[in-house]
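Section: Multi-chain targets

For targets with more than one molecule, the full set of components is provided together so that the structure can be written out for the assembly as a whole rather than chain by chain. Components appear in the order listed by the source. The example entry contains two components.
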Amino acid sequence: MTKRDRHNLLTGLLFISPWAVGFLAFCAYPLAGSLYFSLCDYSALSPAVFIGGQNYRDLATDGVFWTALYNTLFFAAFAIPLGLVVALGLAVLLNFNVRGRGLFRTIIFLPSLVPMVCLAVLWQWMLNGELGLVNTVLNPVLGVINGILGTDWPAPNWLADARFAKWGIIFTVLWGAGNAVVIFLAGLQDVPRHLYESADIDGANFLQKTIHITLPIISPVIYFNMIMGLIGSLQVFAVPFVMTGGGDGPERSLLFLATYLYQNAFDYWNMGYACAIGVILFLVILLLTLAACKLSERHVFYAGK
Amino acid sequence: MTGHRNSRFAQALIYGALVLAAIAFLTPLAWMVSTSLKPLNETMSLPQAWVPSRICWENYPDSIREMHDFWRYAGNSLLLCLLSVTGTVASSALAAYGFSRIEWKGRDKVFFVLLATMMIPFPVVMVPIYGLFKELGWIGTFKPLWVPAFFAGAFNVFLLRQFFLGIPKEISEAARIDGCSEFGIFLRVILPLSKPALLIVGLFQFLYTWNDFLGPLVYLTEQKNFTLALGLQSFQSQNGGTSWHHLMAASTLIVLPVILLFFFTQKSFIEGVATTGRKN
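Its structure, encoded as tokens over all components, is:
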């Protein structure tokens, strides 16, 4: 190592030192701490006592935990793909050269600025079974459908009905898709024009251009939004927590992993158990991200590779 | 995908779809404002009108009074935003400089660690961090909500690094030959060139702090220290299912500053969001 190299190393480390200290204090230590406390009986009021894998054995037989895991995976399984399809669809529409495009983009982006708590309160009102706007719109539609099919489906009492509650949360979150729309739109605008022009000469239609040009080229952006969606959906907390007044909804249909973790940590002061849930949550995110990574190796196209 | 190639019919179809989408995305916001101006009995009966029989402006002062310390919560939120924005812009810029403008051994490996930390959700590390702040005697104070911002956020470092990498190396070299120190180059050359990126990071952090719910919920114990987000949740859990007009008025008041901020900074804002998905 030359003198210059050593100087650069020291300066570099000095510049990143704020981050490095933060990383150790708020990331590395708590991650190791979560792992260790998950093997302990720990209440934050008294010192942790090592108990081995007991918390995990308890989790395995804890029906409530399995419900939370199921709800979390159910939510992610629908919220992520729906979010991607809706956001990409809107971005494709916004990418057309139509009048008022900027205004449309702003309108679609605005809801993603709404704070989670406001989002939850607003949609609790929107989804109110009796007075909510959603059912006011849905009722006549259902009337027509029932008339045709001869069925007798009532409009659901969204958040008060275990069968529909999670869908209520999924719609709430979809309303904030604007962020992903803007990211997709930027990706679409980066697609080289000349590719479409050559395809036009070959007589390709819109669908063919989408499948053979647009999708492969923006696949890294799809991948990025998918990972962000994955990490966000699996730690869903604020919206269901506020909507249920800190509870877990009808028949625990709105109990998610992060909610159950919070309840164990701060309602029951069962912090060791909460950490075990945290470790599981982390593993779920890690496994799914790795799976997405593997998938991307086959399907994501990076220019220049 | 250019406009003139699309047939008239296709144009109409696209336009129709966009108008529908705009209505769907705008309606809940409009409904929030509409409800916030209704008298109580009109929120509790069907059919619900878009325009109330009488515009009840008094719902706003009433909801502020019902939330007790609304202005105090607003002050708390604002103070936390100010501290967090200052902290994260300064510390993230420093770190991003170290990750982009100086060549040092192992830099890219360490940067990979930084990227990996973005995958760790807060709930997973929440308990040990809580324990740490408890040891420090910080629970119930604002410190857990702003001190960490002074230790650079991974995402902000990532964004600023992207921007710094785009500044030509020669600019730094010239300053170096003039005898400028590394910190001098950072402060007097790179930072002034990076105002748009710094603005974006500041805006994102402002939004994050203004909107944050879990952090205040975990760390703030006394009502007088609540932020607006936490204050609204506490108001809702006491009045949920009844005074929708007041809840909507309070929500409108909390959303409004964010929307105003967005309109004043729209261009950099949208560009900032767009950059997050781009990688070099």
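The domain at 63-299 of chain A is CATH 1.10.3720.10 (MetI-like fold).
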